[in-house]
Amino acid sequence: LQPVLVTLSQNEQGKLDYSPVSSTLLSEAAKIGISAGLLQWSGQRPLVRVDCKEALQYAVPAFIYFVNNNLVFIILIYVNATTFQLLSQLKTVFTGLLFRIFLSRKLTMVQ
């Protein structure tokens, strides 16, 4: 859905009239807000403690996710949404191939 929305929000010159970084930040803030609201609505009150070491372990994947989300905006300037979606679905195929080549393990039918 994101590639289609980004493509539809481009101006006549194919540029974006807004900051892709702020767009990504706002969508992630909305996800946190929705999650917090659903947790509140469920009535569960888990004990939450912050562990800095554990938080840092999540920082690297979070940064990669951040970069990936912002690269989508740049890529969609050069290719249309359909091509992007088709190419992005190849991630699954390449993951399976690399899993087989580098880890020398066979994939099961479920995988």
Keywords:
single chain, 111 residues, mainly alpha, 4 helices, extended
Protein described:
The structure is a single chain. With 111 residues, the chain is mainly alpha-helical. The protein contains four helices and no strands.
Question: Sheet with the most strands?
Answer: none
Termini gap: 25 Å
Helical content stands at: over 70%
Report the structural category: mainly alpha
Low-confidence runs of at least 5 consecutive residues: none
What is the mean pLDDT? 85
- What is the radius of gyration? 19 Å
Number of helices: 4
Shape: extended
- Count of beta strands: 0
Please trace the helix and strand order, writing H or E for each element: HHHH
Strand content: under 5%
Describe the structure concisely.
The chain is mainly α and 111 residues long.
Give the SSE map.
Layout: H1 2-8, H2 20-42, H3 52-78, H4 81-103
